[in-house]
Design brief:
This protein is mainly alpha-helical and about 120 residues long. The protein has four helices and two strands. Strand 1 and strand 2 form a beta hairpin.
Length: about 120
């Protein structure tokens, strides 16, 4: 192989490596940013963490007998509707501040409902 051919091969190799590196960096950036909210953004975790916490509270209420089957069904339906709403909001690639606020308000109501159902006079038999 002559020197010009080696130099060309080397330059093509470096160019390909740089192209792949830039593509990987762009993919990492795209992967970190999802639905207009970074995966590590507190607003995203706030909604997801609250959903998780409410799920745990409902399960604890079932285990302790504080929630009847009917109460559990109603709370589970409410949680499913919130998840569907959140999924719908994020489906366009964005999760705006107004959409997050709406979901947070739904989670506030759900949290109050969980508390009320767990602390009413009805218990599982």
């Amino acid at each position: 192989m002559n020197t010009a051919h080696k130099t060309l091969s080397t330059l093509l190799g470096f160019g390909l490596a740089a192209l792949l590196s830039n593509n990987a960096t762009a993919n990492e950036h795209r992967d970190r940013i999802h639905n207009n909210v970074r995966h590590d953004h507190p607003a995203r975790h706030s909604v997801d963490a609250r959903e998780h916490s409410q799920h745990k509270r409902i399960n604890q209420g079932v285990r302790s007998g504080q929630l009847t089957k009917e109460e559990t069904r109603g709370l589970a339906t409410q949680q499913r509707e919130i998840r569907q709403e959140k999924r719908q909001y994020r489906s366009d690639g964005k999760f705006t501040k107004a959409e997050r606020k709406d979901v947070q308000q739904d989670l506030n109501k759900a949290s109050k409902d969980i508390y009320q159902e767990k602390h009413d006079a009805e218990t599982r038999k």
